[in-house]
Amino acid sequence: MTGSFRRTAFHWTTVLPVLAFLAFLVTFGRELPGFGVTIVALLLGGAVLASVHHAEVIAHRVGEPFGSLVLAVAVTIIEVALIVSVMAGGDEKSATLARDTVFAAVMITCNGIVGLCLLSAALRRRVAIFNPEGTGAALATVATLATLSLVLPTFTTSEPGPQFSTAQLTFAALASLALYGLFVAVQTVRHRDYFLPITTADEGAGKVVESEEHHADPPSNKQVVLSLALLLVALIAVVGDAKAVSPTIERAVQDAGLPHSVVGVVIALLVLLPETLAAVRAARRDRTQTSLNLAYGSAMASIGLTIPAIAIASIWLTGPLVLGLGATQMVLLGLTVVTGIITIVPGRATLLHAGVHLSIFASFIFLAMSP
């Protein structure tokens, strides 16, 4: 028992969140030199990885599709914390940070992660098999949330520019929460079987199977409580450390001559990297449905939870809040939705589908740097 406790106490998933939290306490309110920024950035990355690990431990206890939901919500909390922390100390350029980060998260998940997962599954088994009912419902929810929160502000007239009025922002926040909550209820209770994995061996019968982790011994209550505590520590550390390194990220983007929207892309890439790895691992194990649950669940949570959080934060944040997308971004979003529909309807995808999604993702990255 003592040996097990020592292994847990000195494991990287325990040490890194604690070190990252200590770094937050030490650097709070201070301007860091280059070496200090490097150390804090490394600890920030470690805290992100550790937080996702502990989310997976909790997810293993509650099972699929609850596992994908826990991971998506954990990642979104990190994203919201990063956005609010950067906006709180930013200038007028931070007005578009929420929009840029949320849109980047949608493009990364719906094209980058989906494309990589389909590519990984198709390379190993020729086709990627998944449940079109569950995945289609997820994509429909993402498309609706994105349109209500990111497209409509460009065309409303109550406020000048691509902004919501206070009443419109409140409505968008409440609608996002309601729609996301409805999807969670459908995913976890009413139609849970739509979101369970289908393997290539079970394709003909349309049989759903539990993930491989389902057959492994679940973590004990003590392990789950410890992971929950460390998850909270890691999330707090991410908020504080992000606040410390965000000026350096903004200066680097400015010195490179890149648009300020690239800051949002960097934040989204940072928080979604661990989830990307988890989704690709699931696809390689012939659990494409789990991968798509993670991808579309993250996109959905990114909008459904970020917009309400930003709406509340706008009470004390100064300056405008720009949510409306530009013409180029709306074209990419529309192409993503149309391509996603064509990919999902058959319930099976090939290398070509993966290549199409990855090409849209590459276009997004290129156009973000060279609009």
From TrEMBL:
Transmembrane domains' residue ranges: 9-28, 34-54, 66-90, 102-123, 135-155, 167-186, 224-242, 262-282, 294-317, 323-344, 351-369
UniProt membrane topology term: Multi-pass membrane protein
Cell location: Membrane
GO molecular function: potassium:proton antiporter activity; sodium:proton antiporter activity
Pfam families reported for this sequence: Na_Ca_ex
Keyword field: Membrane, Transmembrane, Transmembrane helix
InterPro entries: Alkaline_pH_Ca-Antiporter (IPR052946), NaCa_Exmemb (IPR004837)
Domain named Sodium/calcium exchanger membrane region: residues: 38-188, 227-368
Record's GO cellular component terms: plasma membrane
Entry-linked PANTHER family: SODIUM-POTASSIUM/PROTON ANTIPORTER CHAA (PTHR37958), SODIUM-POTASSIUM_PROTON ANTIPORTER CHAA (PTHR37958:SF1)
Name of the molecule in the record: Ca2+:H+ antiporter
Species: Phytomonospora endophytica
